[in-house]
Amino acid sequence: MTEATRAGFIALIGEPNAGKSTLLNRMVGAKVSIVTHKVQTTRARIRGVAMEGQAQLVFVDTPGLFRPRRRLDRAMVAAAWSGASDADIVVLLVEAHRGITEGVSAIMDGLAERTAGAPVVLAINKIDRVKSDVLLGLTKELNDRFAFEETFMISAEKGHGVDALRQWLAGKVPEGPWLYPEDQLADAPMRQIAAEITREKLTLRLHQELPYQMTVETENWEEQKDGSARIEQLIYVIRDGHKGIVLGAKGETIKAVGKAAREELVEFLGRKVHLFLQVKVRPGWLEESERYSEMGLDFKDGNE
Ligand SMILES: Nc1nc2c(ncn2[C@@H]2O[C@H](COP(=O)(O)OP(=O)(O)OP(=O)(O)O)[C@@H](O)[C@H]2O)c(=O)[nH]1
Ligand SMILES: [Mg+2]
């Protein structure tokens, strides 16, 4: 007799920078969610699909949970919690070297109420950054505070412990038919993934507040006769000065960003790409509902 198929949604939640997107990409085996060393990189829910035996694991990457100040922050945090409440299993990522921060504490306070009874698993991430004796104490402290179903110690970046977590999840998701075709890796429109790739490259090159005050949208996508894709994107910033920074002296910043983004798009799509970037100053974009729907967020979730 063949084993029954299983499938389920697994939400990855945690503080900004905990390594959620890194873990999603590792589980999927491809880069579907952008990663930077900066906080608040992910802005909306992104689904990545992984197969483990007869189980299909649909990982839901979420924006980091933090105390929101702006409309965009509130919409991001709402998207993260709603990802958790829709999931079959929730994985809370905690950074090993930071331990129980104020932020982790606040998340644990909301967990029981906001996960709608789904099992919550603890994944202590970045174990490559600490000595192993730290981990036992941290595991105990966290489990004393919340009834985690299981604790895993992982390094999403190096891959340690990730197989054990994936196998455990595969045995835990409900029996049922697969939710996506077996070979599908991500559930997000290509134009959105393409915009995210450019936003990642920009975020890596821009400093201070600027990454939080810009957004990228794919304006136009044309399939060319020769099999290549012609992609036009708009970068929205809030000030003239920001435009200058994004362009860089003699346009070299945007040129470098465009090159890096194009190379990654070529790898992702497996074909030739022509990428055109344009910067637009739009002082009010953070208060425009269309910008939120382009990002995959609900504008109203940002209401105070
Ligand atoms: N040393 C180490 N670094 C890691 C590990 N996992 C992730 N990182 C790094 O942590 C940083 C943040 O990773 P992300 O995956 O973007 O974190 P995130 O939780 O998705 O962050 P937000 O989207 O901002 O909420 C990146 O620089 C990663 O390379 C790990 O296991 N070990
Ligand atoms: Mg992320």
From TrEMBL:
Keyword tags: Cell membrane, Cytoplasm, GTP-binding, Membrane, Nucleotide-binding, Ribosome biogenesis, RNA-binding, rRNA-binding
UniProt xrefs under SUPFAM superfamilies: P-loop containing nucleoside triphosphate hydrolases, Prokaryotic type KH domain (KH-domain type II)
InterPro entries registered for this protein in UniProt: G_ERA_dom, GTP-bd, GTPase_Era-like, KH_dom-like_a/b, KH_dom_type_2, KH_sf_prok-type, P-loop_NTPase, Small_GTP-bd
Binding site for GTP: 14-21, 61-65, 125-128
The protein's name in its UniProt record: GTPase Era
Keyword Transmembrane helix: no
Any one annotated GO CC term: cytosol
G3 as annotated region, ranges: 61-64
Region named G4: 125-128
Short name of one Pfam family: KH_2
Signal peptide: none
Membrane topology listed for this record: Peripheral membrane protein
Region (G2): 40-44
One of the GO BP terms on file: ribosomal small subunit assembly
UniProt subcellular location: Cytoplasm; Cell membrane
Region (G1): 14-21
Era-type G domain mapped to chain residues: 6-175
Subunit description: Monomer.
Record carries keyword Cell membrane: yes
PANTHER family: GTPASE ERA, GTPASE ERA, MITOCHONDRIAL
Family: Belongs to the TRAFAC class TrmE-Era-EngA-EngB-Septin-like GTPase superfamily. Era GTPase family.
